[in-house]
Amino acid sequence: MSKLHPLKVHKIIRETKDAVSLHFLVPENLQSEFKYNAGQYLTLETEIQGAKIRRAYSLCSAPFEETLSVVVKEVKNGRFSKFANRELREGDMLSVLPPEGKFILEPNKNSQNTYAAFAAGSGITPVISIIKTVMEEEPESKFLLVYGNKSPEDTIFMKSLMDLQQKFSQRFMLEFVFSRKELEGYQFGRISRSIANYFLKNKYKAHTFNSYFLCGPEPMIEELRETLSSNGISKEKIQFELFSSSSVPEQTLEVSEGNTALSVMLDDEETEFIMPQNKTVLEVVLEQNLDAPYSCQGGICSTCIARITEGAATMRKNQILTDDEIAEGLVLTCQAQPTTSVLKVDYDDV
């Protein structure tokens, strides 16, 4: 199982008024552990007012670049994001888990693909990593990016993206969408069904797209998935990553008010205790001070995955695991509530 490592914040760059990029230099002895695919994320941990806080942020650097970089956008009531934007300084240390995530692109220098991505706000971070990787490592491939923000001033990496478009003018197609400023040459509004259809069925109808990458808030992702499906795009061609999730669970659980005998295998050690069935496995594991892997605690990353080896549990929400993975016993422990009197989970066997 991956362990936290202290990394020094080498550089902090103010990207917009409410977003900074954090750049880490990885020591030589950790280089292999921090190798990653374009689109993956890091989990950062620090102590704020006596409490340990973990958050997941997608890598905006590309694997071929020398630094490891993420963007942290300040959000209302966001303890870590406020800390990163207001208090963190160059030279400070953060605890960092090695890269994880399934929203990835593995480049092939012989590919001649055409990709499309729709991103909103800080959803650009994994997408720009994927774009840079395609431009550098798939010289015959093309990429369309449709990127939505409130205004140019609120657009993370606007200059970097325009520089990329200029450098790869025959291969990188860049389209901005602004919801609060009407500007000539740019689309006005939010990324939606009509915006997607305009670009895919009109402006770029001559292109056949091999893969689609969607990254942003849940309502946008769901609308675009439905739009692509209605246009005959198979789900195998669509990858998505949520940057925020609805607070309403996908299903209302009828969970017993009883208890479950929980057994947890973690770092080759088995721990047993009784847990209430109205809590999630991760909640209880952390209450027992076990060092289980976790990050978002909202069911939108994959850090807390474990395998059920006995018993059963139902997830409050799942946007990560496929039906096949669930059938194999994998579960998001931050969402899993036991439905049997005995439950055994193994964090090591994933």
Automatic annotation (TrEMBL):
Domain named 2Fe-2S ferredoxin-type: residues: 260-350
Ranges of residues in domain FAD-binding FR-type: 2-106
Taxonomy, superkingdom: Bacteria
Keywords: 2Fe-2S, FAD, Flavoprotein, Iron, Iron-sulfur, Metal-binding, Oxidoreductase
Cofactor(s) the protein needs: FAD
Gene Ontology MF annotations: 2 iron, 2 sulfur cluster binding; flavin adenine dinucleotide binding; metal ion binding; oxidoreductase activity
InterPro entries xrefs: 2Fe-2S_ferredoxin-like_sf, 2Fe-2S_ferredoxin-type, 2Fe2S_fd_BS, Beta-grasp_dom_sf, Cbr1-like_FAD-bd_dom, FAD-bd_FR_type, FNR_nucleotide-bd, MRET
Gene3D superfamilies found in the cross-reference section: 3.10.20.30, Nucleotide-binding domain of ferredoxin-NADP reductase (FNR) module (3.40.50.80), Translation factors (2.40.30.10)
Protein name according to UniProt: Flavodoxin reductase
Organism annotation: Planktosalinus lacus
Primary gene name: paaE
